[in-house]
Amino acid sequence: MKSFLRNEAVRFILFSVMILALPALLAGGYLLNVFVFVGIHTLLAVALNLLLGYAGQISLGQAAFFGLGAYASGILTATYGQNPWWVMVAVALTVGLLAFLVGFPILKLKGHYLAMATLGFGIIVYIALNEAVDLTGGPSGLPGIPNLTVGSYVFDSDLKNYYLIWGVTLGAILLSLNLVNSRIGRGLRAIHDSEVAARVMGIRVRLLKVQIFALSAVISSIAGSLYAHTMTFVSPTSFGFNFSVELVTMVIIGGLGSIYGSFLGAALLTLLPEMLRAFQDYDIVVYGFLLIVMTMFMPGGLVRGVPELARRLLARGEKGRADA
Amino acid sequence: MLEVSGITQRFGGVTALDDVSFRIGAGTITGIIGPNGAGKTTLFNIVTGIYTPTSGAVHLEGKNVTRQAPERLAAQGMVRTFQNIELFGRMTVLENVMVGLHTKGRSGIIASALRLPWQIAEERRLREEARHWLDFAGISDLADIEAGNLPFGKGRLLEIARAMALQPKVLLMDEPAAGLNSRETLELARLIGKICEAGVTVALVEHDMELVMDICEAIVVLNLGRKLAEGTPREIQENPDVIAAYLGEG
Amino acid sequence: MNLVQQLSQYILSGLSTGAIYALIGVGFAIIHNATGIINFAQGEFVMLGGMLTFFFFSALKVPLLLAVALATGVSTMAGVVFERLAIRPLKNATPINLVIITIGGSILIRGIAMLLLGKDTHSLPTFSGDEPIMLGGATVLPQHLWIFAVTLVVIVCSKLFFSHTISGKAMRACSYNRRAAGLVGIDVRRMVLFSFTISAAMGSMAGIIIAPLTMTSYDVGVMLGLKGFCAAIIGGMSSGLGTVFGGLILGVLEALGAGLFSSGYKDAIAFIILLLILFIRPQGLFRRGESERV
Questions:
Q1: Mind telling me how many Å the CA of C45 is from chain A's nearest CA?
Q2: C35 in a domain, yes or no?
Q3: Which residues pair with A127 in a beta bridge?
């Protein structure tokens, strides 16, 4: 058991070192900017993974919490000049409370009905962001959101934002790792395997589901606030149905129930469009195709699929040598 | 200890249970038998709160617990195992038992995410307690194996260890011997005896008549949703209605 | 125009969009009942119907009726190909993976349509002129009548198919219990293929008859598909009258909401209704609750 704990800690430290050293390799430039988004997407994917990968509850409306966080931060700081740090915390708690309240009726549903209800919630929020023009600026977006500052230090470059966002994301990863290896995490995984068996074990399934839904909303809202202050501009298109789908895809392609898998999924799906630029208009086709193929051939996601593939290739290589 | 009175359950037009009443004494082992389709599993599902009965009541230690949710019943000591063992397949054997200790822990999301000192202490306590129950069921050597990879017989033992972790007052076992070979059944019988000695009232639905007659002090016979007979193993074996029901089926 | 006239106008246009939602919703329900899958690509067949009709009619100068037939045929083929390539090869896929695969399919179909048919928004001519017909104070376009007529014919045909043909009965058997249907010798995989064929055909027809009124482009499928799903949920996933009424109710409420309150929130209305129904009566408006067996 002790070696396992040490192992988990070692893995986290290695991962953190890799992330913190990455900007040195990228030497500024365009890719650094992409990795800022990988950070935000990882944060969102980890939040969704707690719900989808561990508790087994799908949400096709995560973009709504992300959007609410981004817009509330944007409006309160840009329009009303409030302190962004306090706003970020207050907004995250409010969004969490909203998710908690909405969660009770929504998480009573299962399977496709749950997918549809969360999707509906997401679309309602998306429409509200578009239509409440006085507050949000409507489809043309909300400009002039200030960068975050600490004293006179302004987070106004890709490098600074990289460390800011990855600092938060690494923190969230650490807390999530703790959580999934605890009493709560075991409860979530039990719900995933069999809700009836979990209830018979005395787990208050509904409450736990709603709590984790609210937690994922809080983290998503923080991701939204960070996004708003990094971009200094938000518009509704970033928070629609497509983005919710993209987040679910990140979690599944990375690997359900694996925190590091969420990073892999987020990194792949954020880098992919950049790589597919060469395909121009074909990118959407390639994207849809990859989605189908990866789900068909790697149903366990990258974290399980890639080692499996490597093992198979290695075995074939050895066989090849033996034959020769 | 456990009293079932006038339970009726209808699914659409089908009456699965019709006015079934009986009483299970504290510290006893009671067998519930009957041909297939007699309503035994339905009865367990009602008693443990998974189904809401159409009418009737369930009392635990004199307290009316009808229509209470399974998780509340579990916390009050009404615990069960399943016919097709319901293990948490992607967790280790030890973790499975620790899920059984869920109600014995207090730490919530925040304490767990931050690893507060008392949460760490609680985890350690739960882990030790879980090891105790693995030991009780004689499977401590399997602690770190993923439960989904266990052979069926060991899975059955794990399910019992996990149920015992809740420190039940009443343990309801749904066909615990199903799928076990004769050696494993013997092991099971010994374990059930041990559970009873620990002061737990046991009720089991079972098809293995030898096992039932061997370990049960009282037997309730269901047939086609009705209670057919009730009594000691000897009385049941000599009951003409019971013999007719079983012969009629076979 | 007085209020009564206005209301009847809203209701009328609501009924015609509602009929479209109904057609799409029935397609959803047919696949769901035969396979347990919620086909998120359903809306893309609707899009294909409209876009392909435009393509055959405007680009290839085929007569409208033939263009409609060709478009329906090609969209249906798309449904068959999708089932063959993405659904049939799956074994033991989890529901979540199935959701992702149908979403991937919808993105793929949308992308191919965009590449082949372009990103522009197109309009189709109405089937029989634009001369409005007065009907009790409200004006009806001939296209509205086409919509009602086609919907009625399709629904009646599917009803007849399900209750009077062997294949239809076999599909119903699959919806009650797939394993048992397989055991009594029904070729379940063929029924799954059937269900995709039928609902792709229905979806594309819906897309064709609505296109002259609303314009069409490669990305209209998402919203229409989701609305169709709402209709199916209201109807309790019935492949018959429940979903038809669900669609009509949804269409009318949406039109009234848009007309009387705010057109910007029109799309939100459908989803608010969806949420309310899911919260209060998840088994749909018209179905009695059944106690679930574990």
A1: 16
A2: yes
A3: none
Per residue in C70-94, pLDDT (tens digit) is: 999 999 999 999 999 888 888 777 7
Cα A141 from Cα A136, distance rounded (Å): 7
- CATH (domain of C144): 1.10.3470
> Region C211-231: what's the mean pLDDT?
90
> How much is the average pLDDT of B63-83?
92
Residue A146 DSSP code: P
Cβ contact, residue pair C97, A124, below 8 Å: no
Query: At a CB cut-off of 8 Å and minimum separation 6, what does C152 contact?
Result: none
A21, A22, A223 from A32: Cα distances, Å: 12, 9, 18
Chain B residue with CA closest to A193: the answer is B88
Is C290's Cβ below 8 Å from some Cβ in B? yes
Could you identify the residue written with the tokens 């089908």?
B14
Nearest to B41 by CA among B15, B16, B71, B60: B16
Measure A103 CA to nearest chain B CA, in Å. Answer: 16
Instruction: Annotate A1-20 with b (16+ C-beta within 10 A) or e (fewer).
Output: eeeeeeeeeeebeebeeebe
Q: How many domains does the structure of chain C reveal?
A: 1
> Mean pLDDT of residues grouped by 10 in chain A (324 residues)?
66 93 84 94 97 93 97 96 96 98 93 87 95 93 94 91 96 96 95 92 95 97 97 94 90 91 93 78 81 84 84 78 62
Residue C64 lies in a domain: yes
Alpha-carbon distances of A157 from A44, A160, A164, C109, C203, rounded to whole Å: 22, 5, 11, 39, 49
Q: Tell me whether A218 touches chain B (CB under 8 Å).
A: no
Q: C173 lies in a domain? A: yes
Q: Nearest-CA residue of chain C relative to A104?
A: C279
How remote is the C-alpha of C9 from its chain's centroid?
23
Touching check for C164 and chain B: CB below 8 Å? no
Distance of CA C87 to the CA centre of its chain: 19
Q: Chains near C, with 3+ CB pairs < 8 A?
A: A, B
pTM of the model: 0.90
Q: Which residues contact A274 (CB under 8 A, 6 or more apart)?
A: A34
Which residues form the domain of C227? 3-280
Q: Which residues contact residue C25 at a Cβ distance below 8 angstroms, ignoring those fewer than 6 apart? A: C228, C229, C230, C231, C232, C235, C243, C244, C246, C247
In chain B, what residues touch A200 (CB-CB under 8 Å)? Answer: 48, 50, 70-71, 74, 79-80
Subunits adjacent to chain B (3 or more Cβ pairs under 8 Å)? A, C
Residue C291 falls inside a structural domain: no
Query: Is C294's CB within 8 Å of B45's CB?
Result: yes
Q: Which helix (H) or strand (E) holds B241?
A: helix B240-249
Encoded amino acid at C78, one letter: A
Chain A: nearest CA to C21, how far in angstroms? 16
B238 CA to chain A: closest CA distance, Å?
Answer: 37
